[in-house]
Write a structure and sequence with these properties.
The complex is a heterodimer of chains A (304) and B (342). Chain A has 11 helices and 8 strands. Chain A has 304 residues and is of the alpha/beta class. A 5-stranded mixed β-sheet of chain A has the order 2-1-3-4-8. In chain A, strands 5-6-7 form a 3-stranded antiparallel β-sheet, with no helix packed on it. Chain B has an 8-stranded mixed β-sheet. A 4-stranded antiparallel β-sheet of chain B has the order 5-4-13-12, with no helix packed on it. By secondary structure, chain B is of the alpha+beta class. Chain B folds into 2 domains: 179 residues, no CATH class; 108 residues, no CATH class. Classes of the chains: A alpha/beta (304), B alpha+beta (342). At the A-B interface, β2 and α8 of A face α8, β12, β13 and α11 of B.
Amino acid sequence: MAAVIGWRKKDFWWQSPVVFLEDPAAAHRLVWDPFTVYSPVKFLLEWQASCAAKVGIFVKGCDSRGINRLLQDKRLERERVVVYGVPCGGKADAEKIRASFPAKGIKDVTLLGEQLVLTVGDREVRVAAEAYLLDKCLTCRHPNPVVYDKLLWEEVLPRQRADESRFARVQAVASLATEERFFYWQRQFERCIRCFACRNTCPACNCRVCIFDQAEPRWLGKANDPADTLNYHIIRAFHVAGRCFECGECERICPAGVPLQELNRKLIKDINEAYGDYEAGLDATDQPPLGTYRGEDPAGFDES
Amino acid sequence: MKKVAKTKLAELFSAMAAWGKLYVPAVSDGIVNFVPWQEGLTVALTALNVLVPPKKFFFPQTETVLSYEMGEDLQLEDFACRAGERAILFAARPCDVASFAMMDKVYLDEPLDEAYRRRRENTTVIALGCSEPDEACFCRSFDIDATKAPGADVLAIDIGQELVLVAQTEKGERLISVLNGLLSEATSGDENRVKDEQEKNEGRYVTSVNLRGMMEKLDGMFAADYWEQLYKRCIGCGTCTFLCPTCHCFDLQEYAAGRRGERIRCWDACMFADFTQMAGGHNPRPSQKERVRQRFMHKLNYFPHQHGDYACVGCGRCVRKCPVNLDILEVIQEVGGAVDGL
């Protein structure tokens, strides 16, 4: 292996960014803590495009489904990656911690089973972890890696309430009257700054050239026009429909707090209802519902 | 020095809104942004940085520069003269106010940007001092005092039950005189509390950077290996540039249909692949490495060479919001200056 992609610690307690380690002597810099949340998977695209050597990568349950995503989309050479699977009990939400504790006084945050242990000033505080986990982790059904070469430790149990809460927000929005629902999404998209972080972080967004980056013809205007922004978000959601594996990173990293996972899950729910339950990224060899045809598929376009 | 009770702020806002278009920070779905004030709106007085910096009031993300129509003759309309309705920006934080001076160096220098000039001239800026910088605030390292804002027309300081208002420019005095009926004179006790706030400022930061020699050090780093390891985790989104109060690059786009059209100026980000894409297909910054280098060289080397100041005000937005934690604190720390107190 020429390098291994994992996480390291940075300046603040809430920063555990991805790191590319090339020197085995620097392996001690690798960390696994409540903030090792950013998925390293998409970096494999550029790695494999620019370097023939093998690379190692650490993946949580959600990240591992990204590996399957890239494999199924024929964008990854599996034999050139060594996958270290890390069963994950959930990651912490710095905003939730900040709302309860003075951020400037926090020295350290650790997850110990179902407890979050904080060092605030010189005292240690233990609280139930659940209230401080990321929303996306509370609805996670696959905390254990689904593809790996080596599993780092024993598998963990999925959260008990993950299933029932999975579509809760989708149902809440769907229950709004049509006009209210439109205003709801209008308000969400109004905040979009058009930074494309949602697309850039997404392993399902792996086109060699994205339609939104094309200048000739320019499909998406560069001006931050509400119609264009709506257009962007609808096309993005539809393009990952049936391929989105619910890692929730698009929503988590959105600087403007646009609830993108609601769009993704709405499409997942519709696909489940139309074609039977399907979860993307669990098996790189399965036939995704929107990529296959069966005689009994509903012919939606015939309906009035 | 004047003051107003916080319980009377709604009346004050109402009077300001009658005088000019009033923008205030407010929370919507958990995100704080400057929005037009309206009756009943809750103003986020304690929020520090709004998400999208107030540079947008002078340099909007999207604006029509001109429109044209081809007939017998070419009909051209320059939109600059339409810019700049009378406006008030309430509760801009001192770091953001300091960024206006940097934008001025770009847009008020030759060739002068008329739309920008008109917006600056017709907007009265009320700064609100920060009582509690957060852990990612490091404006002090750029000689910005979070309880002072010399570039603002009016400085507001929160002294508990009241806001003290100090007019700092003629524009500020004009606004204060319009609002005078709603204000009372600050007492010497109030003045002491303002002074007390200002004296406490220094001790409230937990993060500071040492910028000594930064520009000079970067002079010799264009071809350094450093950028090679730095850029790898950058995902090339526009979060840092769009949320940066000093980033000021734009693109011009034609929106044309038939014989008429508009020329639109919109924010651009040096992190995007098409930022330097040439018409013939060549791109002088072919990979994310060159783009990341450009962003930090511009802030810490090119801009200070050209204009005398680092193009950063330490607002901390890139520190808080970069999805991969690739921010200017890291670069300053690794390139040269030390980061103290972390």
